[in-house]
Amino acid sequence: MLRNTFIVNALLIGLLGCQSNTPPQSATAAASTTEKAVTGKTYGAAITSAGAIPATELAKVLGTQDSAQVKLIGKASEVCQAKGCWLTMQTASGKQMRVRFKNYAFFVPKDIAGKTVVINGWAHREEVPVENLQHYAKDAGKSAKEIAAITKPEQQLNFEADGVLVQE
């Protein structure tokens, strides 16, 4: 009897010793560790690219929620040419998401269109009034005719960033 108990305990210890103690990685974590870290200049709060998800994945993260705190990585499409007080990034649907900066506390360079950026903050859905849309069009350097053609508010996905990292 003692011999059987000893054998069972030895087998259990052997099996437990073979188990891996590392927890499985999520798909997001695995993807972010295989991507090259983005380095560059930070504006606003200091951030890194660690844990950033592609901007094209934002709809999946949001789901049916109106807002979510998230860190995204993607290309800057347009930048405010008046002050650098906003930028846009393309979403999976092909629409542009406007990124504004928390409390209007910082700006980004006006020449970063096409560069990879990491943004940290809150993504949210909102209806943007005509006046704001026209203001953004003016800041982007649109013609008077293009600005006058904006006559209806739009449902948009927007982002308030507390920090932006621009790849060098």
Question: Could you explain the architecture of this structure?
Answer:
This protein is α+β, with helices and mostly antiparallel strands and 168 residues long. The chain is 27% helix and 35% strand. The protein is built from five helices and seven strands. It has helices at residues 2-18, 27-34, 58-62, 130-139, 144-148, and strands at residues 40-44, 53-54, 67-79, 86-90, 96-101, 116-128, 154-167. It has a five-stranded mixed barrel. A hairpin with a 5-residue loop joins β4 (86-90) and β5. The termini are far apart.
Quick synopsis:
The chain is of the alpha+beta class and 168 residues long. 27% of the residues lie in helices and 35% in strands.
* SSE string: HHEEHEEEEHHE
- End-to-end gap: 71 Å
The percentage of residues in β strands lies in 25-35%
What's the shape? globular
Q: Which spans have pLDDT < 50 for at least 5 consecutive residues? A: 5-34
Described by strand count, sense and barrel closure, the largest sheet is:
5 strands, mixed, barrel
Summarize the amount of helix as a percent range.
Answer: 25-40%
Number of strands: 7
Structural class by sheet pairing and helices: alpha+beta
**Mean pLDDT over the full residue set:** 83
For the CA atoms, what is the radius of gyration?
Answer: 24 Å
Give the strand order of the largest sheet, numbering strands 1, 2, ... along the chain. Answer: 3-4-5-7-6
- Helix segment tally: 5
